[in-house]
Amino acid sequence: xxxxxxxxxxxxxxxxxxxxxxxxxxxxxxxxxxxxxxxxxxxxxxxxxxxxxxxxxxxxxxxxxxxxxxxxxxxxxxxxxxxxxxxx
Length: 88
Description:
Blueprint: H1 19-31, H2 33-54, H3 65-85
């Protein structure tokens, strides 16, 4: 994918860093589109797998299905949080 190399990145990438470190992080993040796109794809695929688990009928036959559902939902939320860090 060809992306604008000067995209603004989420401030969480540079939180607590010096100006020099912040500039370096911005440069690295903006120059690694291939890696970030692959990470985005991996996260998306895992999210799809987990969402399928949520609606699987076999889960409801387990005595602790509610705990399992909560666990999987938490994993999905974590993936979405990671995705929120990635520049679009």
